[in-house]
Structures are given as structure tokens and as C-alpha cells.
Specification:
By secondary structure, the chain is an all-alpha fold. The chain contains one helix and no strands. The longest helix has 104 residues.
Length: 125
């Protein structure tokens, strides 16, 4: 048996062609466009991330301010209640003092009347 020895290459390797200027410029332009779009995408992502972080920060500040306002409202209500109770107590005290004055005035008048009557009786004797 004889072997046929043909000089055939097992793989067809195409010859390298010189690149055209047009294709090079197209490759460069598409590369620049993809790099630019990647940069733009990353920048927009960062912008939205920072906007979201700023929004979260503002929401937290708003919630803290609301809780402070609620505390202030509660304290104002307590102050109003204390003022009302204090006013009621002072009104009651003044009523008691008036009643005490009236009760002390009556006996004094009676005592004065008794003294004047006794003086009149003594002078009549």
C-alpha cells in the first residue's frame, strides 16, 4: 500500500489582508461609542445612587423633625393642662379666702356691736 502524500494543509488559514482605513475608523468609532456609553451609564448610576442617598437622608431628617414637633405639641398640651389646674387651684384658694374673710368679718362686727352696746349700757348706768 502506498500512501498518497498530498500536501494539503489540514486547516485553511486565510491570508492576512491589510486593514482598510475605513474599517479601522469604524472600529475606533464603535469603540469610542461603547466606552462613552459605559462612562455615561456609570455616571448616571452614580447620580441616581447619590440622589437616592440624599433622598433617604432628607426623609430621615423629616421624620426626626416630625417627632420633635410631636414632642413639642405634647409638651404644649401638658403646659396648658398645668396652667388650667393651677388656675382652678388659685380660684379655689381665692374663694376659700373670701369665705374666710366673710366669716371672720361677721364675728368681728358682732363683737364690735357687743362692745358698743356694753359701752352704752355702762354710760347709761
Amino acid at each position: 500500500m502506498e500512501f498518497d502524500q498530498k500536501e494539503e494543509a489540514p486547516f485553511n488559514v486565510p491570508e492576512k489582508k491589510k486593514a482598510d482605513k475605513k474599517t479601522l475608523t469604524i472600529y475606533i468609532i464603535t469603540g469610542l461609542i461603547t466606552v462613552g456609553s459605559l462612562i455615561y451609564g456609570y455616571a448616571s448610576y452614580q447620580a441616581t445612587y447619590f440622589k437616592d442617598a440624599e433622598i433617604q437622608k432628607l426623609k430621615l431628617e423629616l421624620e426626626e423633625a416630625n417627632t420633635k414637633l410631636l414632642r413639642i405639641d405634647a409638651l404644649e398640651n401638658q403646659i396648658k393642662e398645668l396652667q388650667l389646674t393651677q388656675k382652678k387651684k388659685s380660684d379655689l384658694r381665692s374663694k376659700h379666702l373670701r369665705q374666710d374673710k366673710k366669716s371672720t368679718i361677721k364675728p368681728i362686727d358682732k363683737v364690735l356691736e357687743k362692745k358698743s352696746k356694753s359701752k352704752i349700757k355702762k354710760s347709761a348706768n
